[in-house]
Amino acid sequence: MRPSALRQWLGAWAAYLKAGDLLVLALALVACGLSVVTLWQGGRPDRAVIKSGGRVFAEVDLTVPRILEVPGPLGATRIEIQPGRARVAADPGPRQYCVRQGWLSRAGAVAICAPNQVSLALSGGNADYDSLNY
Q1: Which residues, in sequence order, are CB contacts of 20 under 8 Å at separation 6+?
Q2: In this model, does residue 120 exceed pLDDT 80?
Q3: Is the pTM of this model over 0.85?
Q4: By the number of CB atoms within 10 A of the CB, which of 12, 24, 67, 113 ranks highest?
């Protein structure tokens, strides 16, 4: 769209807007901005839940650094834990989606290595969503 056509289109709409309309629009934008800032923040995680084959393999505290080898049908998945965060460091799966997710640091964050049937979920605090499962 050319700049002159855009100005013409905006000018046509401006004729229909009143001061109250602009006020409502401004208040709606402020409400959206505030809701993103206050409601879209996951809490700080306190533990990691690691599953293999749909069963809990380990539930570890996120205060002590450690590396876990989790067995799966394709081989071992290596999970690295650091204070306040965790990641899938290596996985024998073909596409490496769970490895590419990088460090998880918010409560409710999940990395799923579907081909190897291994998952890593952070829990505690206020999660961004209620649950995920596969």
Answers
A1: none
A2: yes
A3: no
A4: 113
